């Protein structure tokens, strides 16, 4: 990322602020809702994925730990179902996802960047259609749960954008007040695996660019905290529909270009 023009750096900074906002407000989507925009600026997934991964590690651990402290202060952290994390279902889901996750990591490191970009845009279009039509992924069957978790683990391994598939399952098995923090712990575990694979493969982690992109993501994080509190009690269907339409347009433009 050393040879970009000044306006490309500005766009990347704004997109990472958007990523921080989405991640904190929804509990997922920091990658899937930012990668289409980033790839329009620079069509190199492996440039941005390490940066997104580090941001996930930092913010997911921070928010989950803060939620745990708040649950402790409320006196419910030690009671089953009253803490901020559903450890039982988290462990059950990880047993299903871990092997597909590792297979996906190998796929990311071996597939050409152009093909990986097309796969990412294609997956985002599928997700976006669900948002735009107000019919997001929902799982109501045990076998469907397994399939979605396996696919979500694999996609997460390839590009860190398996969240909508995984959330479709977790939303039906984890209590609403535990969902966001449980997902953040899951993202942390999955991203640690991804980062280890990056280090083993010798991928450039773009460490110098964390110095200015982390504050951008933090600015989005602060705004996302406010929106999250609003969305917990409000109907957010309009937000998702508009978001879905925008993502479809961006992804189609990306595929054509």
What attributes characterize this protein structure?
257 residues; mainly alpha
Structural class: mainly alpha
Distance between the termini: 20 Å
H and E order: HHHHHHHHHH
Contiguous runs where pLDDT drops below 50 for at least 5 residues: none
What is the overall pLDDT average? Answer: 80
The radius of gyration computed from the alpha-carbon positions, rounded to a whole number of angstroms, is 17 Å
Q: Which range best describes the helical content: under 10%, 10-25%, 25-40%, 40-55%, 55-70% or over 70%?
A: over 70%
Large-scale geometry: globular
Q: Give the percentage of residues in beta strands.
A: under 5%
The total count of strands amounts to 0
How large is the count of helical segments? Answer: 10
Largest sheet: none
Structure description:
- This protein is an all-alpha fold and 257 residues long.
- Helices cover 79% and strands 0% of the residues.
- The protein is built from ten helices and no strands.
- α4 packs parallel to α8.
- The longest helix has 30 residues.
- The chain is globular.
- The chain starts with 5 loop residues before the first helix and ends with a helix.
- The model has no long low-confidence stretch (mean pLDDT 80).
Care to give the gist of this entry?
With 257 residues, this protein is mainly α.
Topology record:
Elements: H1 6-26, H2 35-41, H3 45-74, H4 87-110, H5 113-132, H6 142-159, H7 163-173, H8 176-201, H9 207-233, H10 237-256
């Amino acid at each position: 990322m050393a040879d970009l023009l000044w306006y490309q750096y500005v766009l990347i900074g704004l997109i990472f602020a958007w990523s921080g906002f989405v991640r904190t407000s929804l509990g997922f989507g920091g990658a899937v809702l930012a990668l289409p925009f980033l790839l329009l600026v620079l069509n190199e997934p492996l440039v941005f994925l390490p940066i997104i991964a580090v941001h996930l590690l930092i913010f997911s651990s921070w928010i989950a730990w803060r939620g745990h402290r708040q649950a402790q202060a409320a006196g419910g952290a030690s009671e089953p179902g009253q803490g901020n994390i559903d450890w039982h279902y988290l462990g059950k889901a990880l047993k299903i996802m871990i092997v597909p996750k590792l297979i996906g990591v190998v796929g990311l490191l071996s597939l050409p960047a152009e093909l990986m970009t097309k796969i990412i845009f294609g997956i985002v279009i599928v997700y976006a259609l669900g948002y735009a039509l107000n019919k997001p992924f929902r799982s109501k069957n045990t076998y469907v749960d397994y399939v979605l978790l396996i696919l979500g683990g694999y996609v997460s391994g390839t590009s860190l954008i398996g969240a909508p598939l995984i959330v479709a399952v977790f939303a039906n098995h984890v209590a609403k007040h535990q969902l966001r923090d449980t997902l953040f712990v899951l993202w942390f575990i999955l991203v640690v695996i991804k980062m280890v694979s990056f280090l083993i493969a010798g991928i450039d982690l773009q460490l110098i660019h964390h110095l200015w992109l982390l504050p951008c993501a933090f600015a989005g994080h602060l705004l996302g905290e406010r929106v999250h509190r609003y969305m917990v009690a409000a109907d957010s269907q309009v937000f998702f529909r508009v978001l879905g339409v925008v993502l479809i347009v961006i992804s189609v433009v990306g595929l054509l270009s």
